[in-house]
Amino acid sequence: MRFLILALTFALSTPVWADDDFRLGSTLLLSVGESKAIVKPLTCRYANELQVKVEDQEARIESLKVFYRDGSSKTIKVNKNIAKNERSNWLKLDRRKCITKVQVEGYAKRKVAEVKVYGRRD
Fold it and tell me: Tell me, what DSSP letter sits at residue 108?
């Protein structure tokens, strides 16, 4: 019985490896002009790189403003149209810091687009 519980625990758990990517959160971009949408992770997460995935509709991503636990922030220019269900390239951050919030600036090409922000650490 103990072996079965142990086997199920390992089977259902997701190990964290050095190059794993993880979702910081998601938000919605509107089509009316440029909008700023906020992604707030449930907890402070460390990352060296960020990636954006657009779902539902094509969207134009202008920039990401990353806020850190120490109070500093960094703006990353993206300036790309991202098609439905596509991802951006990995966007490098200066160094690994704890991310508390990401502000996505851009707009959906039609109606509303869901934007997911992923992080990756080395």
Answer: E
Q: How far apart are CA 70 and CA 109, in angstroms?
A: 35
How confident is the model over 2-42, as pLDDT tens digits?
444 434 344 443 444 445 789 999 999 998 777 789 999 99
Give the bridge partners for 38, in sequence order. 103
Q: Where are the alpha helices (DSSP H) in 1-122?
A: 2-12
Tokens standing for 91? 């966007």
* Structural domains of the chain ordered from first start: 18-120 (2.60.120)
Q: Find out whether 25 and 116 touch, Cβ atoms under 8 Å.
A: yes
Cα–Cα distance measured from residue 39 to residue 41, given in angstroms and rounded to the nearest whole number: 7
Residues 113 and 59: beta-carbon distance below 8 Å: yes
